Amino acid sequence: MKTTTKLWIGLGVLAVLSPIGLYLPAKFKAGSAWGEWGAEEMKGLVGYIPRELEKLGKLWNAPLHDYAFKGWENLGFRHLSLAYVVSAVVGIGLCVALAFLLGKLLSKKENGR
Amino acid sequence: MHIPDGYLGPITCGIGYAAMTPIWVIASRRVKKTLAARQVPLLAIGAAFSFVIMMFNVPIPGGTSGHAVGAVLVAILLGPWAACIAVSVALVIQALLFGDGGITALGANCFNMAFVLPFAGYFVYRLISGNSPVKSVRRVIAAGIAGYFGLVIASLCAGIEFGLQPLLHHTASGQALYCPYGLKVAITAMVGGHALVFGWVELIVTALVVKFLQAQDPSLLGQETGAAS
After folding, report:
1. C-alpha neighbours within 13 Å on the C-beta side of residue B92
2. For a tag site, which of A36, A43, B33, B214 has the least CB within 10 Å?
3. What whole-number distance in Å separates Cα of residue B144 and Cα of residue B125?
4. How far apart are CA A34 and CA B55, in angstroms?
5. How is chain B split among helix, strand and coil, in percent rounded to 5?
6. Would you give the distance in Å from CA A90 to the centre of its chain?
7. Residue B203: is it exposed, middle or buried by C-beta count within 10 angstroms (0-12/13-18/19+)?
């Protein structure tokens, strides 16, 4: 098997295993990453929501915000995991597509050496 | 390390984009010169790997969580300029589709994770590996240490960017407008978390994949890294 084929399979395995990244922080009661709090979380930390932070925080409403489906937030770990794996697959697909496009545009035209 | 919208003021966001614009232009030119058509799949795999490895959040028990970025690994395989492009691709998709990292902060985030990280890591990798053989243990160790330092140095940059905000922007009464934490707190938190926990994840991931590739296909490792085979 070609090495690149193995690497593609590896990516698939990582996508399926990605809910580990959801499970471990919950299991060890760790919060969000430092500096990535939502507005309400921020209020709890410093007592107020910085004015521009609150305004700019609403700038972009991402379709799969936090690698989750909208309205699925309270359906439990299984649903969140499913959304997480779907997000991983979608994200990998888009990264591959965009990088291929850029690579085709940029790479030298001859095949191999 | 994905700075969201609202944490950085206009000056820092502007500088982030202003710094990345020439870097992206140079990266495109360099990649155009060095990337062979058959390496394009590796570039795509690199971008996707960086994307998915960032989903593996690792906790500091009772504290914050963080993750590896995979940028040093891509730099070892394809060179730091190609790594810059691959990680930028992942960061753009994360910001637009998943709201992970802000749109206004995208320049700064790319500076930290797609420029500082792969370049610092690549420098350390070249420094430690020297001209040791492609399949040597020294290269596995070099890759791991490079991953660790790359991530920690990138987190220092993010910490400085966060920590400058209360100095740059505040109300008359002293309330912060953007990130409310100053340099000392922000740098301690960012560098602390990455040096204690997340850097080790980057170390393990980078070293393991290099070890795997040594056994599988050492030719992939020799191209960018000046290795004797």
Report:
1. 15
2. B33
3. 8
4. 15
5. 70, 5, 25
6. 10
7. buried
pLDDT tens, residue by residue, B76-111 = 999 999 999 999 999 999 999 999 999 999 999 999
| pTM of the entire predicted model | 0.95
Instruction: Determine contact, residues B121/B217, Cβ cutoff 8 Å.
Output: no
The three-point CA angle A44-A21-B180 to 5° equals: 25
Minimal Cα–Cα distance from B97 to chain A, Å? Answer: 5
CB contact under 8 Å between B57 and A112, yes or no, is: no
Joined together, the tokens standing for residue B83 give: 């790594």
Q: Best of B85, B97, B165, B178 to disrupt the A interface by mutation (most A CBs within 10 Å)?
A: B97
Q: What are phi and psi of B167, to 5 degrees?
A: -75, -40
Task: Tell me the longest C-alpha to C-alpha distance in chain B.
Answer: 64
* Residue reference for tokens 């040096």: B195
